[in-house]
TrEMBL record:
This is Dol-P-Man:Man(5)GlcNAc(2)-PP-Dol alpha-1,3-mannosyltransferase. InterPro entries: Glycosyltransferase_ALG3 (IPR007873). One of its GO terms (cellular component) is endoplasmic reticulum membrane. Keywords: Endoplasmic reticulum, Glycosyltransferase, Membrane, Transferase, Transmembrane, Transmembrane helix. The keyword Transmembrane applies. The lineage of its organism: Eukaryota, Metazoa, Chordata, Craniata, Vertebrata. It comes from the Eukaryota.
Length: 340
């Protein structure tokens, strides 16, 4: 009888300890909101709250049709046997996303009755939103750098986030969910799988490539050039594998369509550049200036910010064991290089 009684006593003490912790945090609300050690607790609460918020938004706020029908038209063409990217079009124009987008949204096409069940699609994206929140909160739990009260404004209070995920059904949420999953893998030192899912995110939307320079730096820092090559091959081979049906049909059409760096965007959809006239936004010189500024910024980071004190950029090409001094990547340094 004593082992059973002892087990009950420990269980009771455990429940009492959790209860005391929760009551203590409730009495000291400031600590709960400001101490990063409580990120997991507040993040879990916000995820539960977001279930209700997402349901309310879907039921009460009108859906905005922008790209969903075009997505469905584009993948329907592929499902009907068209693999030439130059012949795949939707309401808003030609298909301009890589092959991973086609496969994932083909799955959505079947789940949502050929794209006609918008309400079901919204709930699928709501689940994707909650998954993304969990992945993002997990990153903050690992780093313990941000006061938890910030997360309320990041999710529950953000009209833009709910609009993108729940009301417009863009492909950005799919790409970002996969990207944050890959970053979680990198933080756990699973570099091969992290590179695999990073490449998968790129195959959904090309803008994920903006993080490629930071990832390359991390691979060189962690492995050196020789041992980083297999990770880079994972990224490249996945792109080839996913795109193979389209590359066999029309390789030039696929590459120019899905990775078109000269694509012209409509002024009506921009958010960050509303401060300039539309004529300037549409001018080719403005696009060239932005690209040039981005490349210059990358070069400045390469030669001034990324190399550590007493270490040249070229030393990253060496095997890490042969570098002086040796350096271990931390979670915060990984995130800093990826996002800055």
């Amino acid at each position: 009888m004593s082992p059973v009684g002892g087990g009950r006593k420990r269980g009771t003490c455990g429940c009492r300890s959790v209860g005391d912790t929760v009551r203590g945090l409730w009495r000291n609300k400031q600590q709960l909101l400001l101490d990063p050690q409580h990120t997991a607790l507040l993040g879990a609460f916000l995820c539960v709250a977001e279930v209700g918020v997402a349901h309310w938004v879907i039921q009460r706020v009108p859906y905005t049709e922008i790209d969903w029908k075009a997505y469905m038209d584009e993948v329907e063409g592929v499902l009907n046997g068209t693999y030439d990217y130059t012949k795949l079009k939707g309401e808003t124009g030609p298909l301009v996303y890589p092959a991973g987008f086609v496969y994932i949204f083909s799955f959505f096409y079947y789940l949502t009755e050929r794209g006609s069940n918008i309400r079901l699609a919204q709930y699928i994206f709501a689940a994707l939103y909650l998954l993304t929140l969990i992945l993002v909160f997990r990153i903050y739990v690992i780093t313990k750098k941000v006061p938890p009260y910030v997360f309320f404004f990041m999710c529950c209070a953000s009209y833009r986030v709910h609009s993108i995920f729940l009301l417009r059904l863009f492909n950005d949420p799919v790409a970002m969910a996969i990207l944050f999953f890959s970053i979680n893998l990198l933080l756990q030192d699973h570099w091969s799988w992290g590179c695999f899912f990073y490449s998968l995110a790129v195959s959904v939307k090309m803008n994920v490539l903006l993080l490629a320079p930071g990832l390359l730096y991390l691979l060189l820092c962690r492995f050196g050039l020789l041992h980083a090559m297999p990770k880079l091959c994972i990224c490249a081979m996945l792109q080839v594998f996913l795109a193979l049906p389209f590359l066999l049909e029309n390789p030039t059409g696929y590459l120019l369509g899905s990775f078109d760096f000269g694509r012209q965007f409509l002024f009506q959809w921009t958010v960050n550049w509303r401060l300039i006239p539309e004529s300037m936004f549409q001018h080719r010189a403005f696009h060239v200036a932005l690209l040039t500024a981005h490349l210059v910024a990358l070069l400045l980071f390469c030669f001034n910010r990324w190399p550590r004190s007493g270490q040249s950029l070229w030393s990253l090409l060496k095997d890490p064991a042969k570098r002086k001094p040796s350096h271990k990547l931390t979670a915060n340094s990984i995130l800093m290089q990826i996002f800055k």
